[in-house]
Amino acid sequence: MDETIRAFKYRAWHRGTREADMMIGGFFDSHHAGWGEAERDWFADLLEETDVDIMAWAIGTQPVPERYQGAMMDELRRLDFIKVFK
Fold this sequence. Notes:
The chain is mostly helical and 86 residues long. Helices cover 60% and strands 0% of the residues.
Protein backbone atom coordinates (compact mmCIF):
# COMPACT_ATOMS: atom_id res chain seq x y z
CA MET A 1 0.00 0.00 0.00
CA ASP A 2 1.52 3.33 -0.99
CA GLU A 3 1.82 6.15 1.53
CA THR A 4 -1.02 8.22 0.06
CA ILE A 5 -3.45 5.31 0.26
CA ARG A 6 -2.25 4.49 3.77
CA ALA A 7 -2.90 8.10 4.84
CA PHE A 8 -6.33 8.09 3.18
CA LYS A 9 -7.26 4.90 4.99
CA TYR A 10 -6.26 6.32 8.36
CA ARG A 11 -8.06 9.62 7.79
CA ALA A 12 -11.16 7.88 6.42
CA TRP A 13 -11.47 5.57 9.44
CA HIS A 14 -10.56 8.13 12.15
CA ARG A 15 -13.09 10.89 11.61
CA GLY A 16 -14.31 11.36 15.17
CA THR A 17 -17.67 9.62 15.15
CA ARG A 18 -18.51 5.99 14.54
CA GLU A 19 -21.10 6.94 11.90
CA ALA A 20 -18.63 9.03 9.90
CA ASP A 21 -15.98 6.32 10.23
CA MET A 22 -18.38 3.74 8.83
CA MET A 23 -19.54 5.95 5.97
CA ILE A 24 -16.24 7.46 4.85
CA GLY A 25 -14.04 4.52 5.82
CA GLY A 26 -16.45 2.04 4.28
CA PHE A 27 -16.51 4.05 1.06
CA PHE A 28 -12.71 4.12 0.99
CA ASP A 29 -12.39 0.39 1.61
CA SER A 30 -14.91 -0.49 -1.08
CA HIS A 31 -13.68 1.84 -3.81
CA HIS A 32 -10.05 2.95 -3.45
CA ALA A 33 -8.50 0.08 -5.40
CA GLY A 34 -9.82 1.44 -8.69
CA TRP A 35 -8.95 5.08 -8.14
CA GLY A 36 -6.68 7.01 -10.47
CA GLU A 37 -5.12 10.40 -9.83
CA ALA A 38 -8.36 12.36 -10.33
CA GLU A 39 -10.27 10.18 -7.87
CA ARG A 40 -7.46 10.40 -5.32
CA ASP A 41 -7.47 14.19 -5.64
CA TRP A 42 -11.26 14.27 -5.17
CA PHE A 43 -11.04 12.09 -2.06
CA ALA A 44 -8.16 14.13 -0.63
CA ASP A 45 -10.28 17.26 -0.97
CA LEU A 46 -13.32 15.53 0.53
CA LEU A 47 -11.32 14.50 3.59
CA GLU A 48 -10.77 18.19 4.35
CA GLU A 49 -14.53 18.75 4.73
CA THR A 50 -16.41 18.32 7.99
CA ASP A 51 -18.08 15.02 8.77
CA VAL A 52 -21.43 16.76 9.15
CA ASP A 53 -21.22 18.15 5.61
CA ILE A 54 -20.02 14.90 4.04
CA MET A 55 -22.75 12.91 5.72
CA ALA A 56 -25.44 15.45 4.77
CA TRP A 57 -24.36 15.30 1.12
CA ALA A 58 -24.28 11.51 1.19
CA ILE A 59 -27.75 11.07 2.65
CA GLY A 60 -29.24 13.93 0.65
CA THR A 61 -30.18 16.36 3.40
CA GLN A 62 -27.96 19.08 1.92
CA PRO A 63 -27.16 19.85 -1.71
CA VAL A 64 -23.78 18.60 -2.91
CA PRO A 65 -21.38 21.43 -3.79
CA GLU A 66 -20.55 21.53 -7.49
CA ARG A 67 -16.89 20.62 -6.89
CA TYR A 68 -17.98 17.26 -5.42
CA GLN A 69 -20.74 16.39 -7.87
CA GLY A 70 -20.15 13.47 -10.21
CA ALA A 71 -19.45 9.76 -10.25
CA MET A 72 -17.53 9.64 -6.96
CA MET A 73 -20.31 11.38 -5.02
CA ASP A 74 -22.85 9.15 -6.76
CA GLU A 75 -20.95 6.13 -5.42
CA LEU A 76 -20.76 7.63 -1.92
CA ARG A 77 -24.50 8.39 -1.98
CA ARG A 78 -25.40 4.76 -2.73
CA LEU A 79 -24.28 3.77 0.79
CA ASP A 80 -24.34 0.12 -0.28
CA PHE A 81 -20.83 -0.33 1.09
CA ILE A 82 -21.87 0.15 4.74
CA LYS A 83 -22.10 -3.13 6.59
CA VAL A 84 -25.07 -3.34 8.94
CA PHE A 85 -24.65 -5.58 11.96
CA LYS A 86 -27.69 -7.17 13.55
